[in-house]
Amino acid sequence: MPQPCRSKSQQGKRATEGFSLIELVVVVFIISLLALVAIPIYNGHRLKATSLTGNSSVKMIKFNVEEKYFTTGSFPTSNAEISLGTGSSTTSDYSIAIGNVPAPGTITVTINAAPAGANTVTYVPSVAGYTIDWDCATHSSLAVDYRPYNCKP
């Protein structure tokens, strides 16, 4: 069967379908730049949210510690003394423990998403008359940017 005759304008054209390699490389590069900027920002916001969640959980525990002090005259030195369970109260994002370092009644929140060694917010009680003040700015190791507002120096 004879081939249909092509005009000169159709002979030099070839099918242009899909993307060229350079276009794909440019798209991958742009997505990589966006991820490079977005991932650290996301992780920072997640860490701050976890810290704030731990801080809100501490409010109830502070009340229990204060109640124990005003009824017995001494601060608790473990979670079991205020019915918080043995060891530490733990979620997947943070854990809360009551101890006596640097002072009895100290509440330590350990943020699991933060780097080890720089992941604690420590609430230290001090009695002033008939109130208990909580200092969390002095003994905390969590970066200042991620601490709750009341724990910033």
Structure overview:
The chain is built from two helices and five strands. 37% of the residues lie in helices and 18% in strands. It has a five-stranded antiparallel beta sheet, covered by helices on one side. The protein is of the alpha+beta class and 153 residues long.
Strand order, main sheet: write it out.
1-2-3-4-5
Helix/strand/pairing category: alpha+beta
Give the helix proportion (percent range). Answer: 25-40%
Order of helices and strands: HHEEEEE
Give the total of beta strands.
Answer: 5
Which regions contain 5 or more consecutive residues with pLDDT less than 50?
none
C-alpha termini separation: 90 Å
Average predicted local confidence, pLDDT: 85
Helix count, DSSP H or I runs of 4 or more residues: 2
Backbone shape = rod-shaped
Biggest sheet layout: 5 strands, antiparallel
